[in-house]
Amino acid sequence: MESSNLKQKIGFNILRLSMLVILLILGVILYDIISKGIGVINWQFITAAPKNGMTEGGIWPAIVGTFYVTVITAVVAVPLGVFAAIYLNEYARQGKITRLIRMAIRNLAGVPSIVYGLFGLALFVNVLGFGTSILSAGLTLGLMTLPVTITASEEALKAVPNSYRHGSLALGVSKWHSIRTNVLPYAIPGILTGTILGLARAAGETAPILFTGAAFFLPFLPQSLSSQFMALPYHLYIMSTQHHDIAKVRPLAYGTALVLIVLVLSMNLIAILLRSWLRKKNK
Amino acid sequence: MTNSTHKIIVEDLDFYYDDFQALEKVSLKAPANQVTALIGPSGCGKSTFLRTLNRMNDLIEGTQVEGKVLIDNEDIYQDDLDVVSLRKRVGMVFQDPNPFPKSIYDNVAYGPKAHGIKDKDKLDDIVEKSLKRAALWDEVHDRLDKSAIGISGGQQQRLCIARALAVNPDVILMDEPTSALDPVATAKIEELVEELKENYTIIIVTHSMQQAARISDYTAFFLTGEIVEAGPTEKIFERPEDQRTEDYITGRFG
């Protein structure tokens, strides 16, 4: 009795310790970035372009570039991902082939992002001739995000009880209509959450946009799909490793990191709020 | 062979789940505007049989059907049959009440809307009529916009019946519709079934022999995928011809 109690205590404390370590790491990262970055954050930093060899000025072009490229990513990854998931979960005959397809999709999610970058360079930039552009970068990020949106959408569809499907079919309602009106609406919260989390990750990626469209420095905003663009993660990478005066621009790098983190965290927050709002609405 | 008073005629029906034969040479004639009860122990094939009548078994992969199922003298397994319109004519009520997480109104209006009825007055009318026929109107008429998830299990099941009635079927299949309900709710559903047979042909699968005896006009006894005996309920319960039927009915097994 005593020893099993002791074991339970030890087990419980190991679990608690793991949790604390994780929180601690997160806390240290946030503290480090906030404390070192908050000093440079002001209206001008957010709304101005970099100046004087990027040693002064702000990051507005990088914010806009990240926003644009994320929108293109969403346009590619969300519809394709949702449609593919609907096909896989609702229409495809379940068997060896669908299992194989699922396995391939899961594996794609694990492909290193630099590999997507190289693939995007080969396909979009060179073969399809889109050049290094915001379009090529967005398509590359879209490809990278697809496995996430497909998997999230499929899980969300799986969570909709079969009784909704059968109940609708038994009323003589066609399969497509049943899915559209009695399955998809209940999967939307899960699909949105997974999708936004995937997009948030894409917004913070550097490697896939490295050779496909991100620019070292542009004093202006992207004008079209074929423009190059600045992006927050790439800007941060430049400021931290490639700049001629790294020590001088370090505060700016921290400021950029802070903006990027706030951006990604707010996307996650939106995902959470959206999900709870939709859940309430569906009740 | 065909008879106008027989709504459903099944001839030599074999049914397979992959290699497993779930129904063997099942033949049955279900009279129109009567209640036909399918009884038998668990796993005897009665629910499988029920689902062959609106082809819900099509949704399960690896199933195979041989034989004939005629509804209004039309073979529902012929190649060019439109399954969607078949299911409009042959409604179904499931074992567990499965209201959609929508309002009570939207649950009933769901089928008619899907079939293209957009006119609000017409929909209102269908919803009211269907709920009245399902003996639920008095209990819910003042909260049609409330979620169907919030009403009791018995009300949910009557809502599912109303939902099925709303698409105007002429056959209603019920798969142990009261097995998840308490005795009071069960009594209400049974009463309802007896009223509904005036306008609909009803096939009901039931675990409860008392229920079959109470509400059905015609009974088929299933055992290991075959119909052992079928006939007027009174005869099956009082003068069964087969020893196995008698054993089951007197509670010696099952």
Written overview of the protein:
The complex is a heterodimer of chains A (283) and B (254). Chain A is mainly alpha-helical and 283 residues long. Chain A has a domain at 61-229 and 260-282: MetI-like fold. Chain A has twelve helices and two strands. Chain A has helices spanning 2-37, 43-47, 60-91, 96-109, 113-127, 134-158, 162-169, 175-182, 184-203, 207-210, 232-242, 246-282, and strands at 50-51, 56-57. In chain A, strands 1-2 form a two-stranded antiparallel ribbon. In chain A, α1 packs across α12 and α4 (96-109) crosses α6. The longest helix of chain A has 37 residues, at 246-282. Chain A is globular and about 70 Å long. Chain A starts with a helix and ends with a helix. The mean pLDDT of chain A is 91. Chain B contains ten helices and ten strands. In chain B, α3 crosses α4 (120-133), α3 runs parallel beside α6 (153-165) and α6 runs parallel beside α7. Chain B has a domain at 6-95 and 170-249: 3-Layer(aba) Sandwich (Rossmann fold). The model of chain B has no long low-confidence stretch (mean pLDDT 92). The longest helix of chain B has 14 residues, at 120-133. In chain B, the strands form two sheets. A six-stranded mixed sheet of chain B has the order 6-7-8-3-9-10, with helices on both faces. A four-stranded antiparallel sheet of chain B has the order 2-1-4-5, covered by helices on one side. Chain B is α/β, with parallel strands linked by helices and 254 residues long. Classes of the chains: A mainly alpha (283), B alpha/beta (254). The interface between A and B is medium-sized, with 22 and 27 residues.
